[in-house]
Amino acid sequence: MKWAIIGTWKMSYQGILKASQQLEQNLSASDAVLTAIHDVEENPNFHSVGYSGLPNKEGIITCDAGYMDGTTLQVGAVGALEHVIHAIDVAKKCSETRFNNVLVGQGANIFAQKNGFANENLMSEETYQYYLKQLQNPKPLAAYNGHDTVGVLACDQKKHLIAATSTSGLFMKEPGRIGDSPLVGCGFYADDTIGCACATGVGEEIMRGCLSYDVIIRMKQGQDPQTAASQCVAEFSKRMIKQKGYVDAISLICMNQEGEIGVGTNVKFAFTYANDQHMPTIYIAEPKENGTSVRAITDSDIDID
Amino acid sequence: MKWAIIGTWKMSYQGILKASQQLEQNLSASDAVLTAIHDVEENPNFHSVGYSGLPNKEGIITCDAGYMDGTTLQVGAVGALEHVIHAIDVAKKCSETRFNNVLVGQGANIFAQKNGFANENLMSEETYQYYLKQLQNPKPLAAYNGHDTVGVLACDQKKHLIAATSTSGLFMKEPGRIGDSPLVGCGFYADDTIGCACATGVGEEIMRGCLSYDVIIRMKQGQDPQTAASQCVAEFSKRMIKQKGYVDAISLICMNQEGEIGVGTNVKFAFTYANDQHMPTIYIAEPKENGTSVRAITDSDIDID
User: Fold this and answer.
1) Cα separation, A202 vs A249, whole angstroms
2) By three-state DSSP, how is residue B201 classified?
3) Of residues A8, A62, A127, A149, which has the active-site annotation?
4) Measured between alpha carbons, how far apart are the two ends of chain B, in Å?
5) Of A160, A233, B98, B296, which has the fewest CB atoms closer than 10 Å, so is most exposed?
6) For residues B110-126, average pLDDT
7) What's the whole-number mean pLDDT along residues A202-229?
8) Closest residue of chain B to A172, computed from CA coordinates
9) Closest residue to A101, CB basis, from B99, B104, B204
10) Interface mutation target, options A208, A218, A221, A238, chain B, most CBs of B under 10 Å
11) Please, are residues A65 and A165 in contact by the beta-carbon 8 Å criterion?
12) Which residue of A has its CA nearest to B177?
């Protein structure tokens, strides 16, 4: 195949559609990934990424994003960034220097400001009302049925790989809380000589297993992407259940240098995949006894985002 | 052996001495690691950790710390924390919940305040003058001969492993810049079933290779700690030199479940090691053609910290 791209959740569909056209026109994996993520970041209907994301417990929306170039291994990330809808652009900008590649909090805000990223409002009326409702009638965080990080992996016609993530994080999180999405090796990783990977779910759980890098190493050692992703998540989930009696939601996607993909998950999960031979298509991944199974989406899959 | 502990750089010696006594008395790896790191954090002579650490380019001292419990895989970390000398204590506190384990910036400051960590001054007269001098006569960051993160690994008499790091980060860093030290898998990792590891050096370089987790996987797959650490750093350094023409400073220490250690480095590096059969001793590690060699420190090693 000439190129390939995959994004987490149904919400990535429209962005993947646009990005696929770019990859077909021989634009870079970087351009494609940014296009795909921008679409989710600006969409007011998605409440876990960028504009109209859900806020922390103080009612402030802060975003995390990560970006890795598989050719150079340059990493860029921002954590707890405010007032910028396209956190992924700031993360990419951070990746372009020798030092200061990961910026958090007020330092990230200042950097964004100095680099021309507009001082934007991320709160929509909808998310504001949702927040007020939570204050009045608190539900435990564990029950939050979050839609999560948008993670995108792409392989362009030059066989360059990019991995990137963007999220507004856990609803009602503590101020300053960052999840796995801006943590290289946990939320994302890319290496042209092996493959790329990214994660979505409960960040605190994902980071305990350093899961994006774990799946990269599996592929390096010869596991095909599907086996790698499936076993990575199944084994780690089993470990957590043995340790704590439960495991929080984890979904992982990966891609090798040939654009072949893998998906591992411990909850029902949806993703969008496209390559030069297949139109963007939404698939469903579900945890089974010893791994993950993947099938096409059907009309009865209304319970998934 | 009954217990073992290792710390980065000569500066860890006194703390390792105190922590060794605790391990001998059957205190936990957690207590020992905190003791060892506290000593470095409060020592005014060390300018890369805690009190008297060097500031960012705005003249503000911000600290990063990471903590991981090898038994539970619980992670705690703080990034760009201000006004707390013992950042490691805040990181450990963060590790104790299900969510919100990694806090950065103002959120980290608020958490520290709410949890009784005093609002402390970290700037000494010495570091203030050093900062003013840099402002008047700017030297490039790459030339900064930093002393770095204090990283400590311990295995107690119950065979529990802890990995922890603490640093004031790169001198003259951008506000909000965090390095590898608070990034699980990059700056630190611990898993009782395999071993533990931590890194010191230029954080941006270390994170590109997710090096702490990389060395853990090597040990999981049967490499002894010394081979794992040595090859991990040598291979990654070679990759970076091939990619960019140079590699920034990286030093890595690791320990398996038996308390046996490994050291990999691409610059001259010192560390302190002790176990129940050997008094705390400072060693020198140096990069050789295909790996790292280790020897006892001598009187002529005055160029190392």
Assistant:
1) 6
2) strand
3) A149
4) 28
5) B296
6) 95
7) 98
8) B100
9) B204
10) A208
11) yes
12) A103
CA distance A174 to chain B (A): 6
B102-104 and B75-81: which strand pairing? Answer: parallel
Whether A194 contacts chain B with CB within 8 A: no
| pLDDT for residue A93 is more than 50 | yes
Are B57 and B174 a contacting pair, CB within 8 Å? yes
**Which residues on adjacent β-strands are paired with residue B291?**
B288
Q: How confident is the model at residue A144 (pLDDT cuts 50, 70, 90)?
A: very low
Distances (CA, A) of B8 to A117, A224, B116, B164, B226: 39, 38, 28, 11, 15
Residue B144 in this model has a pLDDT that exceeds 70 = no
A172 Cβ contact partners less than 8 Å away, ≥ 6 residues apart: A54, A55, A56, A57, A134, A141, A144
Interchain CB contact of A202 with B (< 8 Å): yes
How many residues are present in chain A? 305
- Exposure string (b/e) for A170-188, b if CB count within 10 Å is 16 or more? bbbbbbbbbbbbbbbbbbb
Interface contact flag, A207 B214, Cβ < 8 Å = no
- Mark yes or no for CB contact B110/A175 under 8 Å: yes
Residue B146 has pLDDT above 70, yes or no: no
What's the whole-model pTM score? 0.97
Expressed in angstroms, the distance from the first to the final Cα of chain A is 28
pLDDT in tens, B163-213: 999 999 999 999 999 999 999 999 999 999 999 999 999 999 999 999 999
Q: What pLDDT score does B150 carry?
A: 97
Structure-block tokens of residue A212: 């994006």
Residue A69: enclosing H or E segment and its boundaries?
Answer: strand A63-69
Average pLDDT over residues B53-75: 97
This complex has an ipTM of 0.97
Residue A289 pLDDT? 87
Chain A hits for B101, Cβ within 8 Å: 204, 207
Question: At B270, which helix (H) or strand (E)?
Answer: strand B269-275
Distance (Å, whole) CA A218 – CA B290:
25
Is A35 catalytic? The answer is no
Tell me, yes or no, if B115 comes closer than 8 A to chain A by beta carbon: no
Residue B114 pLDDT greater than 90, yes or no = yes
Q: By CA distance, what is A175's nearest residue in B?
A: B107
| B167 φ/ψ angles, rounded to the nearest 5 degrees | -160, 155
Q: Which of residues 240-299 of B touch A (CB under 8 A)?
A: 240, 243-244, 248
List the one residue out of B186, B276, B209, B10 whose CA is nearest residue A191: B209
Q: From CA A225, how far away is CA A222, in angstroms rounded?
A: 9
Give the helix/strand (H/E) hosting A236: helix A225-244
